[in-house]
Amino acid sequence: MSDSALASGWSAPRGVPVSILTGFLGAGKTTLLNRLIGDPWLSDAALIINEFGDVGIDHLLVESSGDGVIELSDGCLCCTVRGELVDTLADLMDRMQTGKIRPFSRVVIETTGLADPVPVMQSVIGHPALGQSYRLEGVVTVVDAVNGLATLDAHEEARRQAAVADTLVISKTGLAMADGGMQSRLVSLNPNARIMDAEAADLSAQGLFDSGAYDPAAHSIDVGRWLSETSSRDATHGHPHDHGTEHGHEPGHHHDVNRHDAHIRADTLVSAQAIESQNLAMFLDLLRSAHGPNLLRMKGIVRLADDPSRPLVLHAVQSLMSEPVRLPAPPAGWDGKTRLVMITRDLPKGFIAELFAGFSGEPGIGRPDKAALVDNPLAIPGMRTTR
Ligand SMILES: Nc1nc2c(ncn2[C@@H]2O[C@H](COP(=O)(O)OP(=O)(O)OP(=O)(O)O)[C@@H](O)[C@H]2O)c(=O)[nH]1
Fold first, then answer.
1. 253-283 pLDDT, tens per residue?
2. Which residue among 71, 141, 152, 194 is least crowded, i.e. fewest CB within 10 A of its CB?
3. Residue 157 in contact with ligand 1 by CB distance below 6 A
4. CA separation for the pair 218, 3 (Å, rounded)
5. Model pTM score
């Protein structure tokens, strides 16, 4: 074993393999997982999906039978939910060994886009008890060909996600060619990683995740150092991020101090009110024209007035808004409510819920209605418009 492996507490491979699927906000983690979910190699896998903010959506959008998917929301895996991940892995093993759940032969963890992957990896390889039951095998990082280079420049989390990977998967290659600049940036961050195309026809789950036991020595010196730093900081609940604002909770909410860049927050909305398609379009237009550059990620499932049982799925990643998809039927586990998560920079708290309510006609004292909003977007507190 190498010195860096020893320093990081890395242990000999044993136990159930755990793969980590990471990548920045909207890079294409869930899309990739959906593409591979029917692969027989994953048929007896347990999937753990973590989401930023307190409104989970990905678990609704992963096309699985449902009983193999565990959602960890209400915080970020690398911050407050880390203890929950340890408990979940311990509980899974316990339930399998006592015959309460069908046996699983591997675990795949999808992190939030803002997650620093190092604490997540440490939960598996650095934890005294879990290290007996699980082994880390296959860290896969999705990098988006459209926004990837700018994202690597702007966000330390994205650079760490790329640096720790065994495999780098470039997504959205059909929308933009991953140019030489991005390839060389990835190679400089992680010279030994395999680079794959998310849209390649022959991509398989085994080809992606089965890269052998994780070896820190195969990565840059930084990776071994981060792994050992994280394990020692963990004892004092320290964290390598900025410690800034809370996300998605009232001030004083004690357990989700979901801290990353102090300007980034998750705004979430849950509404039982159905919305007319044209009002939704106006809501999105207004939001994007006024706040487009600050909208890092939006995803949601929307209850539409014309047929509330067939929701609309929305995705935007920075300036790129995907074509909304009308689902043919309600997804398993959906409670029929609109759920929107927006990860934004410098957006006032409560803004999205207020704006949406104005367009869906939800009554509220002193709330501007649709006409007032369209005539004067500044009617929403904190709203800035370019019109
Ligand atoms: N054309 C194309 N679109 C993609 C690809 N991967 C993802 N997308 C689109 O990008 C958007 C975001 O994809 P997701 O898979 O939800 O991204 P994610 O990384 O799981 O997002 P978060 O969990 O919110 O960080 C969706 O609109 C996808 O349809 C790809 O390889 N090609």
1. 333 334 456 678 877 888 898 999 999 999 8
2. 194
3. no
4. 12
5. 0.77
